[in-house]
C-alpha cells in the first residue's frame, strides 16, 4: 500500500471546539501586559499620570524670580534718581528751566528714594510698582507745565518727558508682570496644598480581568441554542453543491 503524502493546508483540527475555546480564552485576556506594568491596546489601559509638584513649583518660581529681578532693578534706579534730585536740585532746575522749584524737585527725590527702598525690602512688590507708575504720572504732569514758550529750556523738558515716558512704560510692564506672577504663585500654592491634602490615587489594576464576568466554564456552550438567521444560511441553489463536496 503506497504512502500518500498529505497535502499542506488540507489538514483539519480534530478538536475545533477545544482549539476555538483556547483562542477565545487567550484573546479575551487583555491583561498579560498589564501584569508587567505595561499598557494593552485591547484593554485601553492607561496608567494614572501623577502630577509633578516640583515642576509646578519651579514654573511659578521662575516667573516670580524674573518679576522680582526687574522690580529690584527699578528699586535701585529709583534710589539713584532720588539721590540726584535731593543732592543736585539746582542743577536739575537749571537744566529744565525750573528755577524756583528746587524744593519741589527735592520732594520728588525723597519720594523716589522711599519708593526704591520699599521695592527692595517688600516681599509683595506690586503696590510699590504701581506707586512708581503714579509717581511717573505726577512727574509727567509737572514737566508738561513747564513746556510753555516762556521756558527757554523747553527742549530739555521734552527730552526729560520722553525719558520719563519710557520709564513709565517699564514700570507698567513690571507691575503687570508681578501681578501675573503673583496669580501664578497663588495657583501653584493652591494646587500644592490640594496635592498634599489629598492622597494620590494608585494606578488602576486590571490584572484580574479575563473578559468572562461569570468565568470561562460558564461561557462554554452558552450559544448552543443559537439559530442561524435565514439571511446567513447557504442559499437553496448552493446547498446541493455543498452536499456533493
Name a few traits of the molecule:
245 residues; mainly alpha; 9 helices; disordered N terminus
Topology:
Elements: H1 16-27, H2 32-35, H3 53-87, H4 89-96, H5 102-121, H6 126-144, H7 154-197, H8 216-219, H9 236-244
Helix pairs in contact: 3-5, 3-7, 4-5, 5-6, 6-7
How does this structure look, described?
The chain has 245 residues and is mostly helical. Helix content is 63%, strand content 0%. It contains nine helices and no strands. It is rod-shaped and about 125 Å long. The protein starts with 15 loop residues before the first helix and ends with a helix.
Q: Biggest β-sheet: count, sense, barrel?
A: none
Secondary-structure-derived class: mainly alpha
Radius of gyration: 42 Å
The poorly predicted ranges are 1-51, 53-57
The DSSP helix count reads 9
Distance between the termini: 26 Å
Average pLDDT, rounded to a whole number, is 74
Q: Per DSSP, what share of the residues sits in E-state strands of 2 or more residues?
A: under 5%
The beta-strand count equals 0
Shape: rod-shaped
Could you state the order of secondary-structure elements as H and E? HHHHHHHHH
Task: State the share of residues found in helices, binned by percent.
Answer: 55-70%
Give me a quick take on this structure:
With 245 residues, the chain is mostly helical.
Amino acid at each position: 500500500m503506497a504512502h500518500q503524502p498529505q497535502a499542506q493546508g488540507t489538514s483539519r483540527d480534530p478538536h475545533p471546539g477545544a482549539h476555538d475555546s483556547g483562542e477565545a480564552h487567550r484573546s479575551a485576556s487583555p491583561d498579560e501586559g498589564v501584569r508587567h506594568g505595561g499598557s494593552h491596546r485591547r484593554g485601553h489601559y492607561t496608567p494614572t499620570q501623577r502630577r509633578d509638584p516640583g515642576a509646578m513649583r519651579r514654573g511659578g518660581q521662575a516667573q516670580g524670580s524674573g518679576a522680582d529681578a526687574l522690580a529690584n532693578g527699578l528699586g535701585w534706579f529709583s534710589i539713584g534718581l532720588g539721590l540726584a534730585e535731593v543732592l543736585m536740585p539746582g542743577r536739575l532746575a537749571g537744566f529744565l528751566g525750573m528755577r524756583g522749584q528746587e524744593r519741589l524737585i527735592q520732594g520728588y527725590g525723597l519720594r523716589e528714594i522711599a519708593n526704591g527702598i520699599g521695592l527692595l525690602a517688600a516681599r509683595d512688590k506690586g503696590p510699590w510698582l504701581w506707586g512708581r507708575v503714579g509717581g511717573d504720572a505726577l512727574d509727567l504732569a509737572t514737566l508738561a507745565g513747564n513746556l510753555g514758550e516762556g521756558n527757554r529750556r523747553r527742549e530739555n523738558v521734552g527730552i526729560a518727558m520722553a525719558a520719563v515716558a519710557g520709564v513709565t512704560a517699564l514700570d507698567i510692564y513690571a507691575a503687570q508682570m508681578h501681578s501675573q506672577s503673583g496669580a501664578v504663585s497663588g495657583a501653584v500654592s493652591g494646587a500644592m496644598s490640594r496635592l498634599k491634602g489629598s492622597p494620590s490615587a494608585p494606578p488602576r489594576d486590571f490584572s484580574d480581568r479575563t473578559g468572562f464576568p461569570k468565568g470561562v466554564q460558564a461561557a462554554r456552550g452558552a450559544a448552543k441554542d443559537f439559530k442561524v438567521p435565514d439571511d446567513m444560511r447557504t442559499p437553496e441553489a448552493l446547498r446541493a453543491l455543498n452536499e456533493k463536496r
